[in-house]
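User: Quick one: structure for sequence A, then sequence B.

Assistant: Sequence A:
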Amino acid sequence: MKKFRLYIIASGLFLVTAIGISSCTDKFEEYNTDKTRLTELDASGVGNAFAAAQHRGLMFSWQLFQSLFSDLQAQFFANTAQAFGSDRNFMNGNWLNGAFNGFYSTAVPPLYGVLSETKPGGKAANPAIFAIANIWKVKVYQPITDNWGPIPYSAVGNGLKTVEYDAQDVIYKDFLTTLAKSVADLQAFKGTNVLGNNDLIYGGNVDNWIRFANTLRLRIAIRISAVEPALAKSTAEAAVVGGVMETNAHDAFIRTTANNFNTLNQATAWNEFRMSASMESIMVGFADPRTSKYWAPVPGTTATFKGLRNGYQPVDLGKPANSVLALSNVNDRFLPANQNTNPFDVMMSAEAWFLRAEGVLKGWNMGAGTAQQFYENGIDRSMRQWGITDAAAIAAYTASTKTPAAVTGVVDSAPLSDITVVWSADPTKQLEQIITQKWVALYPNGVEAWAEYRRTGFPKLYARIFSESLFVPTTGVIRRTPFTIGEFQVNAAGVAGGITKLGGADNEATRLWWNK
């Protein structure tokens, strides 16, 4: 990332500023085009617009939104580029601005086009497509509010220069209302297919969309369980009764093609990140069979996996021990050569089992089974997702008493936890076990992993070597990202209301509503 150009775009949604980027690869995002102006859709255009909404909803500004922030805060990866400060907790305003505007100018327009045309009374009214599009709306908006807190939500598309920010609790409760209605509306279409190949995830399978929506409800219920316990419990129990993701056949991936690439694969060409030390400590310590599925051995070795502590200063990143040649890169499946064939992870059945395991710990009715059984099911589904199908190997891992390992490097690091993989009889360790295994299973979805780390404090991750934040020390946790430069410039009244609804200072130390 080297050059930034500022463009002012007057949109039909609201006035936004967009960052034109000449990145390590040209045209990573085409910000020079006003993608916020919706064209009218007819019935024949709805499918293509939905496909665009799916792809853009997850891959918009991917480097700026996920790779340089969430992935590093979740400590899936550690940064190796000396000039990049976000791994040292520096909140780069230009990058965050590009991420925010990338969502609203790239991901939102095709989605709202589909919603507008397929709603009751719309030119291409279709209750099944409308319900699925609303499910997708919740899916793509949740990471945005989990980054910033209050965001433009209900007022998006008002055509005004000032767009009000909604408080996060209001947004989350609307998520639940929207999902419940969408699931109810899809009941009439069970066993049918809509959208076909224009649905890049499920090929239009309505039954899978119902499971996807219910799993989202379960995820949201767990997320808000500390601040809305009664609502969380009733939502989670209803979601499980309605049917959540259970098998790998329910796993959600976006198909990739020659014209629809996986942005993680493209980003690995830039040699800017490697395996984190926290990932090494946990996966190598547990002798996790997925290690070689996620990571490549250190160059010149056949089975040595090495991670990097997060937050090294530039001078230390220049040391040989911190060189990309001394660390584990991603597995070959994530390299640029496979960017058109490696599917992009969306949400997996393994996560649903870990959510249910935690629900049991809370005393919720999560269906027939125990927390231990659900925990072990989560491990099983994750293993099988990554091609590990040997039942004996999975059983041996699930019964393992191995613990996280020490990490050596420029700074040697003792393990932070003594948890095992085998289910503990100690109730004080069980939540940590669930979230640690969920963290491993969520890879490479750093967005969700960072949210869960903020919520629970698990897994136990290494402190950063150095922090450039004025508000969060090396031992602290980045709780959110600050509101963006462009919004202060062109939507000042809206963002001012957002700060009020945030309930704290507009900085990275202020906790979100569900994390109070």
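Sequence B:
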Amino acid sequence: MLSKSDLSARLNQLDGKGYKAYQSVKGKYDMDKFILAIDHVQGDPFASPSRARLRLPLTSTGMPSYLFENPDRRVALADIIARQFNQAIRSLAKGNRGTGKSGMVYIDSGGQEVLPRTAVKVDNEFLELRVSIGLPAAGRTILGREARAMLLDELPTLLENTLYRVRTNEREVREHVLLYEDQNYLRGRLAPNGIVAFIGNGSILPRRSGVSDLPLERGRAIPLVAPPELEVEMETWHHGTLRGMGVPLGVTLIVGGGYHGKTTLLKAVERGVYNHIKGDGREWVITVATAAKIRAEDGRYVERVNIRPFIDNLPFGQDTGAFSSENASGSTSQAANIMEAVEAGAELLLLDEDTSATNFMLRDARMQKLVAKEKEPITPFIDRVGQLYTEKGVSTVIVMGGAGDYFDVCDTVIMMENYRPREVTHEAKLIARQFPSFRQEEATSRLETGPGRVPLTESFNPFRGHKLKTEARGLDTVVFGNSTIDLGLVEQLVDPSQTRAIAELIHYAVRYVDGKRSLREILELVYRDIAAGGLEVISPFQGQHPGDLAYPRLLEAAAAINRLRTLRVK
């Protein structure tokens, strides 16, 4: 770690020319206490960028102390500082200059969700920004004069501009911080209010397009308004009393015609496990933190999962109490996804008929007559969904457009009409009595999940030859040693930085793998360490730039390990 003057002296050696140290333009911050640490220098202009940290005492920032007085506020403050620094890059940075990535400045600032990240650290004493930079170079030679200008002019200017933006827009920063705090508070109040999700009145759920997470323009979108039967009031610390739709505990169906908003509502609930920025439209869509999206996943790897509650008596005597497959079918993969989610602590399952295996969801009366139960190994989800709640405390929300048999087993029915929800439970139950399905319940036993699976140490080899290989490729892929983990159908991952964190987290978790602890116990120890030391504890670069990491939930971390094709369990 170098002071400004030390760094300037070293850079002078690159081309022998003098350089005037950076001077504060606005004069509002004590930038003489600014420290620049360069933790990694790239091998050439086309390699991964260099990594640097910009550090300043909190007392020099001019930010009021209430903005960082508790962990939630520090997370939100760090988030908006990263966003403001990114805005400063766009407006002030000179951009690429030279070959390859020369002149690039980047900070991991996120999208619509507010996630704990390693990009900015706010503690009791310091503000630290972790940035990636492309040192200006020609071939494999750093251009000294351009590097001095970038490191000692441009980076401090970007930092000072960011602090200026934060200080002069204190109202916006305060709203961002207090919104995040209230969102977390509401999430903790769901269970005491008997609900698994809350969708505030006026929420804008549709997105701009299938490839954009931005909200549909308000002139085109229909704001959600809760039906009177499901409307609840939720008190907040900073935003008064909110009114909206509460999704009750138990089994809830979302029904309605095609293109009327069923899946849009489910996707909003699915993303409600994360907090969203002001203006997203889903600021007050709050879902229990342990909600898991479940779907069929043809071809996925499964290692010794107890799927017997759903699938038993397979041909050739294959044991479904410890089911393994290199290439699971739609029904077996969906059963495994449910059992793994419950094993990892899921309290809410989210299913969409469109992405589920039909034979897994239902066998109607006619099919039961044709194919006797003793010839059918699948116990359909319709006959277990009630047990999941009554025996395991796991609620379920299902988008269902074509199987009215579920009216018999649900607790609540919400009909979407033109993106407006109606509560139609009474009508659905009346129809179920008037038109009985005559199907026979096929679950003849309790829903036994069994003990947690215990991973074996030989499952985890992060080396490819003699080289450590743990990395992410975009949002959907983790490379761990010689293995590639496909997370393309793990639908609640929202940020590539989460995937990078999962790659590091798997490597970090190996220290707790002892052949005795279950997968959930191992991950709980990892997340205990993260709670104590921040997300950067899983980074191999302790005390340095910890990488561009964002917080992944335990459920997604477990999902990644469960898809590791070298996984072996007791």
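Residues 14-28 have pLDDT under 50 and may be disordered. The longest strand covers residues 50-57.

User: Thanks, that's what I needed.
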